[in-house]
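Exercise 3.2. Students should predict the tertiary structure of the chain below and write it as structure tokens, then compare their answer with the key that follows.

Predict this chain's 3D structure.
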Amino acid sequence: MPPYLQLDRKPAVLAQRGDGPTNLHDDITSGLWCPPVRIGRMASWPRHETQQLIAARIAGATKEQMRALVAKLVAARKDLMPQIEALAGPVQLPLEPLEQPEENTTP
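Answer key:
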């Protein structure tokens, strides 16, 4: 699976960051960490984003540099559609809901 399609749930992200949920939430609110991708009720983070943000921290990025990286990563999410279509074929948005089978109401 391409790295830009791999998602990590919150426990995995926290383990990689080495801190707790309050710090993650504060960083998201401050623009120092990417917000999660929501799929239904599930919140996940693209693995490549987490890796790039941790690498930037290790390299000693300033808060301004982290905010710029977060903005770049979030904006790049919109550019993934051509790569996804190359793997799975054209995707039409919004997706049509599945039709529900008619219920048999005869006794």
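Discussion points: The helical segments are 10-17, 21-29, 47-58, 63-77, 81-88. The radius of gyration is 18 Å.
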